[in-house]
């Protein structure tokens, strides 16, 4: 597709429940990125992929967060045992190369109650 | 480490007047620089980028930005603001060799009719 598609738009989970977010990158883009936007507009890098391979996962809180980009499937970000502080908007982005601009999806707003 | 500073929280400008949104950055080596705009409950839309070449770059919707290496700045400008330009603007930088973007905290632009 010509735009990054993220689903769902909104997700509400009780504390301790699992949350799974999906992202379909733009066709032909080799890199996928996940960012978390919290209060006061701060963006935090979580993880990046080069095709289906993890490229940089140093931003991920690994004890509860995991992500995948498998061939012929949307990429996914999963949070096990959600906490209140996981409430944020999660953005997925894709780019053709590392030195080109990243195009962002509309985001998934996760609310943990 | 890479970082971006957007010193003003909010920029107010009258419709038809020039608009400037300030951005300074800090990187090791040469930067890739980007501006994005975010409308309420929407994702980030790419406006323009500086990778190499001319210091003045032109982007979408009549926006432009000037890369100034000596001042480590990349201010966003538009000669004549429209009410529809009211949104949140983010400056971002990526060091060459780094895959993640570092974002500024964003500037709320309010164009007054």
Short description:
The complex is a heterodimer of chains A (113) and B (113). Chain A has no helices and 11 strands.
Describe this structure in words.
Chain A has 113 residues and is an all-beta fold. In chain A, 0% of the residues lie in helices and 50% in strands. Chain A contains no helices and 11 strands. In chain A, a hairpin with a 7-residue loop joins β9 and β10. Chain A is globular, with a radius of gyration of 13 Å. With 113 residues, chain B is mainly beta. Helix content of chain B is 0%, strand content 53%. In chain B, the strands form 3 sheets. In chain B, strands 2, 5, 6, 10, 11 and 12 form a 6-stranded mixed β-sheet that branches. In chain B, strands 3-9-8-7 form a 4-stranded antiparallel β-sheet, with no helix packed on it. A two-stranded antiparallel ribbon of chain B has the order 1-4. The mean pLDDT of chain B is 94.
Task: Give a quick set of tags describing it.
heterodimer, A: mainly beta, 4-stranded antiparallel beta sheet, globular, B: mainly beta, 6-stranded mixed beta sheet
């Amino acid at each position: 597709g010509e735009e990054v598609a993220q689903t769902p738009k909104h997700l509400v989970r009780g504390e301790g429940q699992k949350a799974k977010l999906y992202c379909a990158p733009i066709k032909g883009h080799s890199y996928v990125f996940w960012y978390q936007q919290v209060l006061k507009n701060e963006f935090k890098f979580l993880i990046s992929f080069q095709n289906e391979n993890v490229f940089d996962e140093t931003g991920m809180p690994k004890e509860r967060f995991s992500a995948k980009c498998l061939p012929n499937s949307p990429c996914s970000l999963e949070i096990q045992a959600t906490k209140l502080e996981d409430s944020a908007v999660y953005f997925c982005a894709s780019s053709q190369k590392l030195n080109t601009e990243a195009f962002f999806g509309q985001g998934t707003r996760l609310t943990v109650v | 480490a890479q970082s971006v500073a957007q010193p003003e929280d909010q920029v107010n400008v009258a419709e038809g007047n020039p608009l400037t949104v300030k951005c300074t950055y800090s990187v090791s080596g040469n930067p890739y620089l980007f501006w994005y705009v975010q409308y309420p409950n929407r994702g980030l839309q790419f406006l323009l980028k500086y990778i190499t070449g001319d210091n003045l770059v032109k982007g979408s919707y009549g926006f432009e930005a000037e890369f100034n290496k000596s001042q480590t700045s990349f201010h966003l400008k538009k000669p004549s603001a429209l009410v529809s330009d009211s949104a949140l603007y983010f400056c971002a930088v990526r060091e060459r060799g780094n895959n993640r973007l570092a974002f500024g905290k964003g500037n709320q632009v309010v164009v007054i009719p």
